[in-house]
Protein: SET domain-containing protein-lysine N-methyltransferase
Organism: Brevibacillus agri
Amino acid sequence: MLEVKTSKLSNGELNRGVFAMRDFAKGELLHEAPVLPYLNEEHEHIEKTLLADYAFEYGANHTAFLLGYGMLFNHSYTPNATYSINFDNHTFDFYAYRDIQAGEEILINYNGDEDCDDPLWFYEEEQSGNKKE
């Protein structure tokens, strides 16, 4: 149903993204990404690594890495997908925010709200010339 391919949107070295292999209807479940949570106070160690850019907030006291395709979805301020945290199953559940056609890249808004256009950390770093290493 989903596959990882080269993305034209990703600015990273790996240029990966997640793409639909079939059509999805608005509201349809795309992926359930299992969670690897850790305590927020441990995040200071993660911030010293590239992994910090891939962490998600997971409740009030935890941060998490997502398995499966979870950490590979690219950002858009006009996303075609959304996600919700399923604490009972310890997953992030990704859904089609609108109809998605086969071959289309699956995009989420990293701000967590589909309509939020707040600047993201990596855009701020690019603009200031302080790109994170």
